[in-house]
């Protein structure tokens, strides 16, 4: 909430004002806030420079007006634009696929029976490569920056100086002891709608009083995520091995060596050749090859509002307020001050 600073308004209520003057000739001029009062004959003669005969002749055609210093309260609508930064946190889920290699020792044993009844056995070793796949899940923390715009509305108070001017109705006052002898003028009130305020110059305003900003939605950029924090791998199935690579080849020509286990060999009992392959030790690689990292859902967290930057002020409609008199009423006759 912004601090409110208002211009102090001058408040004064005038119910009835008696005019002061520069001499006894003006002592007979009185008027109140309703335009009622009395103006002595001598005051009019002095103001207009009339002798008695001229006064008698012009009395009914004289026009009375007033002027009074006044202040009018003013209020103006104010709107201020502003922007506010914001930071939003989030968690992103991800899955990483990996592959792990291994090597297994393989043993093949060939056995057979010779025609002499003796058993013959041959052994060779080899290896085969394999791999297995795995996946692991993880989370990555991130943030993104944004901004939103808003407006704050309020008012500013002020005053402007001016005059209250009006026309005043009057009747001629006569001396009851002397026929048609004028003694002065009875002021009977302001004309309808008077006095009117006539402003002079521009209003003087104080600082605006603004309410809280009303912001729209944030406009964010892309998230900036940290590296994933992964859980241990979960392996999918056993190792899948390929073909065995043997260190040496068994003799396959029946005529090459009559004492080896090869079907068709003349020293070997037909049908006695048997092959047994034994799976031996498996050596698993410590390294895991990353195949792919798959980004998952992003779960947005709270938005932390940042600093507000005030923008320009825009001034709107002006609402004139009450008019307060700030000085004495001056009466004029045919434009001349009394």
Average pLDDT figure: 90
Structural class: mainly beta
Over the alpha carbons, how many angstroms does the gyration radius reach?
A: 56 Å
Morphology: rod-shaped
Strand element count: 17
Number of helices: 2
Largest sheet: 17 strands, antiparallel
- Percentage of β-strand residues: over 45%
Distance between the termini: 54 Å
The helical percent reads under 10%
Run of helices and strands: EEEHHEEEEEEEEEEEEEE
Low-pLDDT segments, ≥5 res: 1-26
Q: How would you characterize this protein structure?
A:
With 338 residues, the protein is mostly beta strands. It is 4% helix and 63% strand. The chain has a 17-stranded antiparallel sheet that branches.
Q: Can I get a quick summary?
A:
With 338 residues, this protein is mainly beta. It is built from two helices and 17 strands. It has helices at 41-48, 52-58, and strands spanning 16-18, 30-32, 36-40, 64-113, 119-174, 182-190, 196-199, 204-205, 209-210, 214-215, 219-220, 224-225, 229-230, 234-241, 245-246, 274-333, 336-337.
